[in-house]
Amino acid sequence: MEQAGSHRILGRLKVALTAVLVLVSVGAIFAQERPQIDDPSKGMKTPREAAEAIKRQADLIHAQGPFASPGATPRMKKRHGVFFLVSWSIPDTELKSYMRDAFRLGATVCFRGMIDDDFKKTVERTKTLAIELGKEAPHTAIDPIIFRQLEVKTVPALAIVNEQEGMIVEGAAAPGHLLSLMVREQPELRELAEWYEGTQRSWERGGPIETPRPSMPKLIGVKHVSSHLRRYP
């Protein structure tokens, strides 16, 4: 009887472990900032303690990731830098142009999801783009959370984020123009816009600019800059 009970406990533990590994794998795909996974093999003396640790981790993942209940307000993660939000629906030529611009701007390119919910197809497409862009391939991530946090519903969108504040402008245009729209709303971004103009001149002469990108200015809240530029859903 005791042996059968032990087998049942171990069986349930394996199922729980498998479930958590799946969630962790999905979390890695979506480039989320997850808390470190508890390792049941370290300091765990009983199956009950291991199961409790697994449950705690699953609860954290569920609360912070894309698995949160519909309509729930996501907790803003502390992000810092420049982000280019795009979609797989953007034509290839245009998408590669945005990705090249993102590289020169030092921005992370974020997609909201995978192509046809197919991980293999998405990886292959990303690899192809990276090969075609060569040295100008930017850092790329699949991150649905940033779209929800910044309330971005159309792309491409350029986002300047500092901690939990951000400024976003949506529309198909070169980063220089998008930055100029931001500067009208936030003059403190002028230094970043001028730095980007310098990088463009440098690339036109055959090489990257050596001056480091200016630090992000202080922002207040999450603000969308209006524009009448063409967009993709």
Question: What's the topology here?
Answer:
Elements: H1 2-29, H2 47-64, E1 79-86, H3 92-105, E2 108-111, H4 119-133, E3 140-142, H5 144-149, E4 157-163, E5 165-170, H6 175-185, H7 190-204, E6 222-225
Parallel strand pairs: 1-2, 2-3, 5-6
Antiparallel strand pairs: 1-4, 4-5
Helix pairs in contact: 1-2, 6-7
Give a brief rundown of this model:
The chain is of the alpha/beta class and about 230 residues long. The protein has helices spanning about 1-30, 45-65, 90-105, 120-135, 145-150, 175-185, 190-205, and strands at about 80-85, 110, 140, 155-165, 165-170, 220-225.
- Give the tally of β-strands: 6
Task: Assign a percent range to the helix content.
Answer: 40-55%
Mean pLDDT over all positions: 75
Shape: globular
How large is the share of residues in beta strands? 5-15%
